[in-house]
Amino acid sequence: MILVIDNYDSFTYNLVQYLGELGAD
Predict the structure, then answer these.
(1) Following DSSP, what letter does each residue of 3-16 receive, concatenated?
(2) What is the pTM (predicted TM-score) of this model?
(3) Which SS3 state, helix, strand or coil, does residue 19 take?
(4) Strand stretches in 1-25, DSSP E
Protein backbone atom coordinates (compact mmCIF):
# COMPACT_ATOMS: atom_id res chain seq x y z
CA MET A 1 0.00 0.00 0.00
CA ILE A 2 2.86 2.33 0.83
CA LEU A 3 4.34 1.58 -2.59
CA VAL A 4 1.12 2.67 -4.29
CA ILE A 5 1.02 5.90 -2.29
CA ASP A 6 4.72 6.41 -2.97
CA ASN A 7 4.26 6.13 -6.73
CA TYR A 8 0.92 7.96 -6.93
CA ASP A 9 2.48 11.36 -7.62
CA SER A 10 4.82 10.09 -10.33
CA PHE A 11 2.02 8.01 -11.87
CA THR A 12 -0.31 11.01 -11.99
CA TYR A 13 2.49 13.18 -13.41
CA ASN A 14 3.24 10.64 -16.15
CA LEU A 15 -0.47 10.32 -16.94
CA VAL A 16 -0.83 14.10 -17.26
CA GLN A 17 2.26 14.27 -19.47
CA TYR A 18 0.86 11.46 -21.65
CA LEU A 19 -2.50 13.17 -22.05
CA GLY A 20 -0.68 16.42 -22.74
CA GLU A 21 1.21 14.80 -25.61
CA LEU A 22 -2.05 13.46 -27.04
CA GLY A 23 -3.58 16.93 -26.81
CA ALA A 24 -0.55 18.53 -28.46
CA ASP A 25 -0.70 15.97 -31.25
Answers:
(1) HHHHHHHHHHHHHH
(2) 0.41
(3) helix
(4) none
